[in-house]
Amino acid sequence: MKSRATRGLGLAAAAALVSVLATGCTGDPDPKTGAGSERAAVDTYLTALNARDAEALNALAPPGNDAQAEVSERIGRLGGRELKIGQLDLEHEFGPDVATAQLTARAQDGTTHDERLGLTRTGGRWYITMGQHPAPSKTPAETKRP
Q: Is the dihedral of CA 127, 130, 134, 136 positive or negative?
């Protein structure tokens, strides 16, 4: 029969393992940015627009992109309209890490909004292509003859 101390250590080890598995298996560098799926990214996008939440919209931009100007423009144009998805078509044309979302949303006043969103997966999270990356990671090739 196991002593109480041995059982306590076993329970502590099991709890620690569950904690590691729950937090470490996703591979997400920062679960506060992006979304876990393409659909979740679109849902978060509409929720952020409806709430006029610039911080939440910025968190949907790919890591390293400066999307503040585009986020401000989108909030000014679409924010607070209580948009709800009427139709959503998700397509993967260029592999599993790139998608497009053709979205038709209906506003509270009955008007519709059609938008095509580009989505990209980075580090296991889905992002909506907004903003510009401040510095290109590659330099353009030269076209001069040697």
A: positive
